[in-house]
Amino acid sequence: MDLLTISLTIFGLLALFLGSGIWVGISLFLVGMAAFSIFTGSPTLKILSNILWNNTSGSTMMALPLFIFMGEILFRSKISENLFKGLSPWMNNFPGRLIHVNIAASALFAAVSGSSAATTATVGKITLPELLKRNYNMSLCLGSLAGAGTLGFLIPPSLVMLVYGIVSGVSIGKLFIAGIIPGVILATAFSLYAMLRCAVNPDLAPRGDLQYGWGDRIKTIPQLLPVLTLILLVLGSIYKGWATPTEAAAVGVIGALFFAAISRSIDGKAFRDAVLGAVKTSCMIMLIVCGASFLSVAVGYLGIPAELTAFISTLGLSKYQLIIILSIMYIILGFMLDGFSMIVMSLPLALPLIKAAGFDPLWFGIYLVIMIEIAQITPPVGFNLFVINGLVDINIFRIALYALPSFIIMLLVTALITVYPEIVLALPNMMIR
Amino acid sequence: MEKFARLCEGISRASGVIAGIMMLAGLSLVMIEILIRTLFSMTLYITEEFTGYLMVGITFLALAYTLNEKGHIRMVFLHTVLKGRARALLDIYAYAAGLAFSSVITFTTACFFWDSVVLQSRSMQISGTYLAIPQFFMPLGAFVMTLQFAAHLGRSIVRLRTAAGEDRGIESSALGR
Would you state the torsion angle of the CA atoms of residues A51, A249, A81, A130, taken in this order, to the nearest 10 degrees? Predict the structure, then answer.
């Protein structure tokens, strides 16, 4: 059977299993098993058990449940509540006022949590009631939250970067550090957009009766200290090379527990829920990672990535044309798939192409994270949309419409980092020195 | 059927709790390593190796619990569109596929574990741990997931026959948190 038929059969099976509601991780395994059994004479079950063992028994993997655990603790504590109180006096004088709290709180929470859904849920449950109570424009409130919430994946620590690092072999520490500048640029772009809209129409963010002076601002600093300390602990230790990502995650968990305990915002039940929540999410991700790893071995064994790379190189595409094609593909995938599935399913094919085109795999990791952020706000499968729908009970397609400006901003930032890859690579290169 | 399903749920939850304890053990191990390295310039030597083993336990023992808590991701378009009998049939199809998958995983990981028992395979690290010990969690977790899939399948079949209420919810929107 020729390779094109084999590839189409594999793709068709995957679409069938996924579309018919079989769990993503299990679909990947089933297609991998079919590919091995039908198209190769390899001992499928032996390969399967070895892949399961090798993919789960790496110590780097422990960073995954620990970072999720840290986010779960913060989600359940008062630390997130204090973020709103602490940031409001600093933002109230800018055009857009407390809309910027949505964005700044998301950026700060993203720096202590690895997930965009956690960031959106934690920030949204505090900011949305406050903003809507003050008659802020609904479209701007929800759109800015949907967009800024995605920073959870770009600003380190990031679960998506962990998975990308594990699957691609790129240094997780460098990926984390590489996400900082693009994350700050994206947050700034979201804020500038809000400023612009509110400068044109100030009624979108009414002044209200809130007035803050410098005294109020300084008084709020202690409320921001826990998050700032955690950011310094986690990112500082990785940047300085004092800790591996797993160790930084462990220190982050202890720090989060400490601050939650002194603010008396975690009890036995919340702790138990946080532990089980972390175990559940990391197990879900691990099943997908193992399934994708198994399928990619099957696909690699059949020689599909090499053949595809050779074919694409005959087309004579420029670097930028390749990125435009990949971006369109990822946006389409993002309508239907979650970020983890997008990474692990596409990487065996995309990474060789990217390397052959001369892109740095570290840069590609950050590009991919932004594509996954876009997937978070594109319906019908967009987890940030689901989270906001749970908070305000508005149709996800309407929320997606509100988030359209964020979608465009993310595409513009993608173009920016493609033309100027130094934006991504500058900080990690400084780490080497 | 209901008795069996409840028993499976209990086993899955217990398995998930053990996975949680393993995560806390991993956290403690990493913290002890950091402390003794910082304070005494020493190392435990086994931290990396044992956190890897704990991760095997966390992943496999949490499989059934995660399934039961609707934690594994899947596309739910068809699920949301279909109602009543059609949805019960779709559930039966999905759970049957899951049962087949988990049975294969249980079988293959049991063989993998048994090979290590027979060959008395040891880790190449300083601890020389018998690999069969951490590898035991693989068939154990996969078996609990098989039980859980069987329970869900049984319930779906009963629901189809009795036209009883629909399965409780679909995959939660908090996924990926």
Answer: -50
